[in-house]
Each structure stands twice: as structure tokens, then as C-alpha cells.
Amino acid sequence: MSLNDVVITGIGLVSCLGEGPDAHWRALSAPGAAPVLDAERFAPYTVHPLPEIDWNLQIAKRGDQRQMETWQRLGTYAAGLALDDAGIKGDEALCATMDMVVAAGGGERDVAVDSAILEASTGRPDFDVLLNEKLTTELRPTLFLAQLSNLLAGNISIVHKVTGSSRTFMGEEGAGVAAVDIAAARIRSGQSTHMLVGGAFQTEHPDMLLGYELAGYLHRGPWKPVWQRQGAEGGGVVSGSGGAFLVLESREHAEKRGHKAYAELGPVVSGRARRTRGELASAIDTLFEAAKLPDGKLLTLSAASGGHAATRAEKAALDARPDLAARAFGTLTGHMKEAQFPFAVALAALAVSNGAPYPPFDPANETAMDEKPREALATAIGYHQFEGMALVRAA
Amino acid sequence: MAKLKDHLGRPVVAVTGIGVVTSLGIGKADNWAALTAGKSGIHPITRFPVDQLNTRISGMVDFLPSSTKGASALTYELAETAGREALDESGLDAENFGGPLFLASPPVELDWHDRLALYKSGDNLDAAERVLEAARTLNSCDMFDSAQFGFIADRLADTFGATGLPITLSTACASGATAIQLGVEAIRRGECDRALAIGADGSATAEALIRFSLLSALSTSNDAPEKASKPFSKDRDGFVLAEGSAALVLESLEAALARGATVLGILRGCGEKADDFHRTRSKPDASPAIAAVKAALADAGLGEDEIDYINAHGTSTPENDKMEHLSLSTVFGERIGRIPVSSNKSMIGHTLSAAGAIEAAFSLMTMREGVIPPTINYDNADPAIPLDVVPNVKREAKVGTVLSNSFGFGGQNTCLVMAREPV
């Protein structure tokens, strides 16, 4: 135990399963949890949609809500939940000295404007001129800000007054891994005392599906659990809308203000396998080594996307370690890209804090575990690139 | 013997390699010659038609093979070109760098021409569905890569043999400075002996231009492009969108000296502070910028009277320059009138995600060369901003320390303090 240990003192979660740590614990700790799916709206793709959210609960000003599209609202909302949970929300002094790392993609484009441009392109040889005509007249000026990656963090600063520092990392699951990694490293080294870290992903927009589908990553046809999509039609990923934010603090900072921690965040490890050279399997092994896994049964929250190659490699690595009781929560929430790893860490912390494992989410592929988890592992093997793991321990 | 630890007991961070590309040219030599000659790189836009556009000028980099191949390809080439120059100068292995990579680059979106190509290859009645269907059928690795936020850093890490998971970041117009800050922090934490920090931005597309234009952020001085960027002038009317890149090889001073590397400068301190006032506007009292400057000075262990030169953010927007003056005069008091403050953007425009890195590179060169690049187009001083902007002509000066400011949309404020020599 050290004063600069990193502890998790706040969790903000939103997914198709609901909002908040308690709702997620209830949904996921009950055997036989069912996914919430929408197979119609974006057919042939299935998505895990957002639950109903009253944005006013975390974003008090309508004016602020109007400046954002759903992705930024979702992230700002989840960040607010985490701050509330940590007892920091509204504490001006704590927010003004709080550092922030947000894992972000981009915001939503205006589908109507884009579609109108594409439709008008038929028979126009001068597409670039058409673009100028349409974009100068039809784009909403503020939409740009709703699309900018760093404006999720910007909105968190504006709405929740988190202003110590603000950094945005980009790069799919890897951004989430790096965000948690850097936040923890800053606390361990004494560069920061308390941090807000996380991300959000809003999949219910054609461009957010397009990001995967340009390389054919999305699963098509009837929904299946994450581990059962190999060989099915499409690329294996079923995406979901959601957000996950964590409040991380030094042990000393949390104890001084008397706030109970869910868990301690242990080693965070990351890597970049050159997958085209066949390095993924050995890279996953290297991460397992570096994460310093404890002996005995270990609850493992897998952020697996279902993407065929990555999920196959992760499954093989997990199967080779029978002590790891894997739980691919993407089966129930869908793949939330940048938010996927912070989400995995949050679920790991909840299990340790509640002193109980999750039942298998896919009983055919996940082994039962009866032991009370003192530790839990979170893994993220990116659907296309980048890998990371974090070990969470009882605080 | 130079001290290897700073005032807080952390490893001192040295710069051992610098690379830069702007509209003024490729490489430090060409850029420095143009910059100190007061030459502008701002020119009429030729990359795409300018019909309907209010702003028809930019500081685009039009002379690279990827200049016409879209934002992702150009940003990569800019980053690689600067990275290679920096690595070559450092004397480290440019294929096997052996340290982490921190990349500041613009958020990516599928290029319009790719979107159009997808649309044209499908037949679904709904445009968005048609694009999705076509994407699935085409399965184009190139298009996919160009729309992945982590792709450029992944490829750079491959090219240069960087270790670990490369970090791609965006703090808007402060991104380049943040990339350097992340590298400095990693070395200070003892995670590595060396880090590669790159800021690159090749995203001056028509849509990007239009978006900034709709926010009334851009200069419309189309008739005299080289005169358009006029930081601190009374008639300044917005920034000029530009492209470019810079790379710094950062090393612990101890590691640099041990291998006999030439130390080009010291990264003394980094400071940041977020603004909660507005998405595009700064708090009227400039308190976040003030806090960022003060944090950088404190981190560097330097007092307000120990800064010799300030490399301003100086965008040439009415708002930024006024706010920047307020922040500087608040921190430095009446002495601000005697500190030279110049804006590289008067010549290269605003290179957005790359700006903080490019301006750090130029700040380091300013100290090494003993020459301060001017603020050009300073023909009509703004009496509300009484600064020594090094007007129009370079100035020879012994510069031992520099403060470089970067302020961005979304309340991003990051400042760097650099020194010529180790202590």
C-alpha cells in the first residue's frame, strides 16, 4: 500500500442496460441477463441502443444540450454520473484541480446534409463546386463543434467545471487504454491527485457503423453472443451506444476526503502488435505476463468486440489459461469502441467491490466461478489494432 | 557539469532532434531562412475550387506527393517527413527508435471523394444505407485506414520502430504542445529515456475551411494572401488555415549526454489549464490562459523575470490576440512591454493540430540561432495591445529562455517553457 496507489472512487456508466453502477451491477450479476437489441433500425446490422435518458439530470442547461449532439451529451452525462458517484460533482475546488483524459472518436455528421449532397451529385461533373455550394449554405455552424473530438472534454469542462487540465486521446479501443494508463501513471508519479477518465460511443448513426463497415467488421444476420460469431455472416462486431467514466484518485487524496474506493487500479499494460505479421497471439501473452496476474481463479472482464481475428486470438489466449473466468460483456452491451476499455475496468471494479463474480454471460463459452473475487482483470484486444489490460484489486 | 535532475528532482528533458514542414518548405533550413526573412507562405487555394467560399487563401502544404491525396495521407506524410528529419538529426536509429510516440493530429473523417465513390457504386435509394452497403461490398483497406483515428500513429510507429501503444491526441489548437508535454512527462516519470513527439496537420479540406468560416474565424483578406495573417494588428480579421508538421526527439539529458548527442535545447516546463467559459471563446478575464502560463513557469522553476522571449499563439483573430495580451500583461506586469513577443503564424498561418509543435521547434531554433523571427504584416498597431511584436523584421538577440503559448477551442490552454542550455 502506498499513498500514491490509484483507487477508483467514482463510476459513471451508460449502456443499453441502463445507467449508473448499481443498475449495471443488478443487470449483470443476475444469471441469464438478456441483451437489449435493435435489429430493425440499421438492418442488416443489430445495435445495442441507448436507454431512455433524461439529459437534464446531468446537463442542467438546455443551451448546453443544444450545443451538443448525442455523442457529446452521452459522454458529458456519463462523466457527470462518475463525478456524482465520487462525491466531487459541484465541488468547485475539487473540479477546478481535477485533470481529465477523454478517449474520443468524432461526433455525428448531419445525415440530411450529407445525403442531400450525395443525391445532388448525380449528373454534376463538378462535385467539388457542389460541395462548396451545399456546405456553405446548409451546414449548421455549431455542428462543427459537436463533431470535434476534443469538444467532449470541452463540454465536460463547461458543464461540470472540470478544469485542471483536459486532454483527448483518439484511436478506437487503444485511446481508452491509453487514457486509463496515462491517468494512472500521472497519479502514481504524483503528477496528479485526482482524475476523470473515460469515453463514450454513440453507434446509432450511419457513419458510426460505417467506421467499422469500411473494412467489413460488422456482424450481420441474427444476433449471437460475442464468442459465437466466428463463421457467421459479416465481421463479428455488434456495436452498442454507451459511455464509461471513472474517477481515479491517489489513495491519499481519497482517504483525506473520506471517500470510499470501489477498488485499487493495479498495473495497466498496453501494446501494439503488428498483426499483419502475426504478432497478436504473442503480444497477448506478453500482456498477460506484464499484468502480473495473481494465482488462482481470476474474473476477467473481456472487452472483446466479436471481430473475428481479434476475438479468436483473445479466446485462444483465454482458453490457454483455465484460471481466467472470462466475461465478454459486449455480449450484453455491444462494442462501445473508445469507451470499451474504461467500461471493462469499471465492471471489474464493481465485481471486486461487491465481492462477487458475474455469472457467465454466454454459458456455453464462459466457465462458472464461485470464488469471491479479490482481483479482476480487464482486457481490450482492439477489433483492428492496439491492445491493453488492467488489473483491479480490492481497495 | 550540467544538472541531470530539475528543481523538482525529475530528469531534465533535452531536445536532440528537430524536424519541420510548413507552407514555407520542407526542413529546418528552408523554413528558418524564410521565417527570418519575413516571408509569408500564405497563398491562394488551388487544391479545390473556391467557388462560393468567403476565404480563398491558406497556408496549405501543396508540394508533397500526398498533397492532393486527402487529409489522412497528407497528415501521415507531413508527420513522417518531420519525424525523419528530427530522428536523423538526433543520430538515433530512424527505423528502430526504441521509445514511445505521441502524435498530435486532426480528428479524421472519411474523405468526401471516398464517400462519393461509395455512393456512386451502390443503388440503394437511401443515401446513407447505400454508402454502408457499398462499403461492405468494396471492403477497402485504404478507406478504412483513413477513417481510423489510430491509423496514422500506428503506421508511424511501424516506420520509426516506436515502442508500445502510440498515443494520438487532440487538444484542438494546443495539440502539438500537448504531444510534447506527454513526451516530457513520460521521461520525467522514468518510463523511457527518449520519446518522439510529432504534431502534424494536413486537414485543410474544403469542408474544414467552410466549418471555420461559418464560425467567422478565418481571415477574408483574399486579395493579398501574404498580408492576410496580421497578429496583433488593429485590422486583424481572423486566422489563416494552414498545414504543417514538426517533430521533436526528446531525451533525458542524462541519456543524451551519455551517447554524446548534441543538445539542441531543454524542455524546462509545461503548464495547462482548461477553460469552462465557452466552446470557442475564452473567459473574458483570461484566467485560464494566465493559469496555464503560470503553471508552465512553475513547472520550469523559472520566475516571470526569467523569460527572454515569448512565441505567441498569436492567431490574428480579434479575440485571441486580445486575450493573449491580457494574459501576458497580467503575468509579466509592466515588463511585458520589454519582452519580445512574436507570432510565427503571421508567416505560416495557423497549422491547428501541428501549431504547438511547429512553434516549439521554431522557439528552439530562435534560441540556438540568436535570431527572433518577426511578426510580419504589422503595419497598423492595435493600441489596445501594446506589445513588442518584433515588427516586420527579424531581430538578433541572445535568447536563453522562451515561453510558447497554445490556446484552442474547447478551452484548451497549454504552454511550454524551453531553455537554450541545461542549468
From TrEMBL, chain A:
Domain Beta-ketoacyl synthase-like N-terminal: 4-254
Keywords recorded for this protein, A-Z: Transferase
InterPro entries attached to this UniProt entry: Beta-ketoacyl_synthase (IPR000794), Ketoacyl_synth_N (IPR014030), Thiolase-like (IPR016039)
UniProt xrefs under Pfam families: ketoacyl-synt (PF00109)
Domain of life of the native organism: Bacteria
Protein name: Beta-ketoacyl-ACP synthase
Automatic annotation (TrEMBL), chain B:
UniProt xrefs under CDD domains: KAS_I_II
Top-level taxon: Bacteria
Matching SUPFAM superfamilies: Thiolase-like (SSF53901)
The keyword Cell cycle belongs to this UniProt entry's keyword annotation: no
Pathway(s) annotated for this protein in UniProt: Lipid metabolism; fatty acid biosynthesis
Pfam families reported in the protein's UniProt record: ketoacyl-synt, Ketoacyl-synt_C
InterPro entries named among the record's database cross-references: Beta-ketoacyl_synthase, Ketoacyl_synth_AS, Ketoacyl_synth_C, Ketoacyl_synth_N, PKS_Beta-ketoAc_synthase_dom, Thiolase-like
Keywords: Transferase
Membrane-spanning residues: none
Residue ranges of domain Ketosynthase family 3 (KS3) in the record: 10-420
PANTHER family attached to this UniProt entry: 3-OXOACYL-[ACYL-CARRIER-PROTEIN] SYNTHASE, MITOCHONDRIAL, POLYKETIDE SYNTHASE-RELATED
Record family assignment: Belongs to the thiolase-like superfamily. Beta-ketoacyl-ACP synthases family.
NCBIfam families: PRK06501.1 (NF005076)
Name of this protein: Beta-ketoacyl-ACP synthase
Species the sequence originates in: Ollibium composti
